[in-house]
Amino acid sequence: MEPMMIGILVPLGFAAMIFGIAYLGFTTRNRERMALIERGADPTLFEAKKKVSTGGAMKVGLFFVGIGMGVVMAYLISSGGGMDEGAAYPAMIFIFGGLALILSHLWQRKQEKEDALKV
């Protein structure tokens, strides 16, 4: 085969694999639901509970703020603190990014507790 054809076959094969996985997932779920309905299960069982969550956007936002703070802190440390620039940037990015994710988790847990008290 030509190298050009191989370059086209890989993305096509990947797309076919994704389609096949999705198709099998949907058809299997449909068969399970139909079997449960035939046995007398309540069809409202399959309705998804609507849960409004804004935690994802907050988590991503805090994560990027943490990364930005890490870059700034790494610049300050590497320029004035004498730390190697190659070590300062990854270290500060991971530290501040991780702190942002921890802060986001604590904030989300607090929100869930407040929501539980409201109900």
What do you see in this structure?
The chain has two domains: 3-46, no CATH class; 55-118. It has helices spanning 3-38, 55-80, 85-118. It is mainly alpha-helical and 119 residues long. Helix 2 (55-80) packs antiparallel against helix 3 (85-118).
Helix content: over 70%
Distance between the termini: 64 Å
Q: Count up the domains.
A: 2
Tell me the strand percentage band.
Answer: under 5%
Low-confidence stretches: none
Count the strands? 0
Rg (C-alpha, Å): 25 Å
- Class from helix and strand fractions: mainly alpha
Number of helix segments? 3
* Element order: H for helix, E for strand: HHH
- Overall 3D geometry? flat
Short note summarizing the structure:
With 119 residues, the chain is an all-alpha fold. The protein is built from three helices and no strands. It is flat.
Lay out the secondary structure.
Blueprint: H1 3-38, H2 55-80, H3 85-118
Give a quick set of tags describing it.
mainly alpha, 119 residues, 2 domains
